[in-house]
Amino acid sequence: MSWSPQYNRLGPPKAPKRRYPNPILTQLECEHHEVAIRDYTQEINHHLSDLERSSIVSMEMIDLQPEIKWYMRPYLLDFLLEIHQTFKLEPQTYFLAVNIVDKYCSKRVVFKRHYQLVGCTALWLAAKYEDKKSRVPTLKELVIMCREAYDAETFVQMERHILSTLEWSVSHTSLEDCLQLIHRDMMDIPTKHEIEKIARMFCEISTYKRCLLQAPPSLIAIAANLLACSVMDTPIGVVHFYQAAEKYVNEFDDDATFDEDLENQLPAVVSPFLSGYSEDTIYEISKISMVLLLAFQECSQSLLNKYVDQAPTVSRFIMHKAFVMEQFPSLEESTLLGADIPDHVHQNILSLLLLHLISADYDNNEVPFTAFEQPPQFMAPPQMPQSSPLTTPPSASSMSVFSEREYGMIHDTPISSPVDRYVQAGKRKRNWYVDDSPLNSKDRGVLM
């Protein structure tokens, strides 16, 4: 029997093989979890509602930053998205990290050379708060991701500084929490998983827009879910919206809910309306939907790469609704939500979201699908006097969200948006946007 020497392997230890849990056990655990938290639903909704009101970021304070400008925000978010996707972190981790960055920038002066450090440290904190311990990136990995621009001790110091600035409170009602509240009460349909992905894509797009920082996350999630249901051509989102609105109205009806024992208790919070429901709620949702549709035409390549299977579906939807998109008013981003939109544009957005189709009576989960068979009727804009010539509305993608021209940069921003590439590829390959199946590798190479 011959003896052979044992050689020690050099280098870092290999990561253990990831073991996927049993799907049946996972489903049973989720069902038991729903039963366990059923008695605490109102307490959870109250807590999320209080957090939503207290975690709104001030845009005016971020405007006072001497070096950090809004055109730098997309570059940082693209970088965080790539790290988030590399480590396969939870969806709420990204939203919490963005909120930590915004709250820190609204309270402290951040220099340009430290902006990436703040973003990576915020993602590190959010991963500790939301993810499993095995998925939290290590200090060495963060240093490598930043190409050794900062050392490990710098991340530890920044973590301590962020926590002390936020008074050791990083809780936040994220967009993912609001989406989970919506999808928890929705009926199970075959396309529900795809609706969740498209709604999450719109929620991530909203983090790039300055005007949506002060919008309640619950309204943004509702608008994203309605848009996703419209893209998938299903009325389930509208049915859930009106059922929740009717429940909210009945909850606060004095004649129907009067009870002496409930006099000294807090009013109930009806999900997903964490910020309440009023006559202006639908109007605000329509404006948020308009902002999200316009923002999709300027979204970054990182988002398109992450949602490579869902982006063509949304682009086809925008192509089919080009008549409505052309009527969107061209306003400044800072006044987009505060300005009034014309009545015909508001009605067309409601038609686009299928909010006008719920006219029949429904009971519980019975959906009047016959009411959705007719296509929505879009209103034409009011005719201008003949003395004034009609002008073509400006293109929503004529100026990219990454434009640096106003800051005196040398490089020009390309006029075409990433969506234009999908449109041009769809014209060359007709079977791409007729077939609803996911793109294969050959077509994907043409589109990208």
Features:
mainly alpha, Cyclin A, domain 1, 21 helices, cell division, Cyclin-like_sf, cyclin
Number of strands: 0
| Main structural class | mainly alpha
State the share of residues found in helices, binned by percent.
Answer: 40-55%
Our count of helices gives 21
**Distance, first to last CA:** 59 Å
The low-confidence parts are: 357-448
Helix-strand sequence: HHHHHHHHHHHHHHHHHHHHH
Sheet of most strands = none
Shape: globular
Q: Nearest-angstrom radius of gyration? A: 24 Å
Indicate the proportion of strand residues: under 5%
Mean pLDDT: 75
Return the domain count.
Answer: 2
Describe the structure.
With 448 residues, the chain is mostly helical. It has 2 domains: 42-165, Orthogonal Bundle (Cyclin A, domain 1); 175-252 and 269-381 and 394-447, no CATH class. Helix content is 51%, strand content 0%. It has 21 helices and no strands. The chain has helices spanning 23-36, 41-54, 59-63, 73-86, 91-105, 115-130, 139-145, 152-165, 175-185, 192-206, 217-231, 236-251, 254-257, 281-296, 301-306, 311-320, 322-325, 343-352, 418-428, 430-434, 441-447. It is globular. The chain starts with 22 loop residues before the first helix and ends with a helix.
Question: Could you outline the blueprint of secondary structure elements for this entry?
Answer:
Layout: H1 23-36, H2 41-54, H3 59-63, H4 73-86, H5 91-105, H6 115-130, H7 139-145, H8 152-165, H9 175-185, H10 192-206, H11 217-231, H12 236-251, H13 254-257, H14 281-296, H15 301-306, H16 311-320, H17 322-325, H18 343-352, H19 418-428, H20 430-434, H21 441-447
Helix pairs in contact: 4-6, 5-6, 6-8, 9-10, 9-11, 10-11, 10-14, 11-12, 11-14
Domain Cyclin-like: 78-164
Family: Belongs to the cyclin family.
GO molecular function: cyclin-dependent protein serine/threonine kinase regulator activity
